Amino acid sequence: MNIKILVVEDESNIQTIIRTYLESAGFAVRVVGSGPDALREAAQWQPDLIVLDLNLPGMDGLEVTTRLRQESEVYILILTARGEETDRVAGLRLGADDYLTKPFSPRELVARVEAILRRQRRGPAAPSATLTFAHLTINPDSHEAQANGHLLELTATEFQVLWELARNAGRVLTRDQLVNLVWGSNFYGNDRVVDVYVGQVRRKLQDATQQTLIETVRGVGYKFVDVKK
Ligand code: CA
Description:
It is a single chain. The chain has helices at 12-24, 35-45, 61-71, 85-93, 106-121, 156-167, 175-182, 191-209, and strands at residues 4-8, 28-32, 49-53, 75-81, 98-102, 131-132, 136-139, 144-147, 150-151, 172-174, 214-217, 221-224. The protein is of the alpha/beta class. The chain folds into two domains: 4-117, Response regulator (Rossmann fold), CATH 3.40.50.2300; 131-224, Arc Repressor Mutant, subunit A (Orthogonal Bundle). It is elongated, with a radius of gyration of 18 Å.
């Protein structure tokens, strides 16, 4: 069965370009032009990934992202206009998996989509061991992390960031290392994206444990500091 991609974009010429490229890459594509239509189609069609323009009439893409995240873990790639860094960061904070800035090359869009989907399929070949720390348990097979007994609400990308940091507990990972481990060589974003994700994961851990389990090592990167049980 084809991988399903829902495109949410209100400009018809961009709709056409995106649809053409995604379809020729082998994806099943549906296109809608508004936030409410996106939510309805996401619920009914159950796409694997949503390409979401942030600048939509009626309900903007950030609101759509928030509502989608209340219901599902679907991959979300947001499209933003040049210069809208605030929106981009907000989108990632709300749980989008990646972003692309307009105007973009349709080939790059396809490459990004494929990179996001590849993360999902990268799953462990052999059953991997659950990591157990004083405050945190991480199960790579179920993609679940529990902090002091409470299930953490993490997006797929946030989980991957946490997994890589925790797997390397006590060691500093540079931003570049994290990018390679989480996004692979198909990463087109900048360091800012890594910082946003690490910040998100750290905040969620902090809320659940009242501990700072991820430390920033200034000028170098990040370190997970919980102790193994
Ligand atoms: Ca638009």
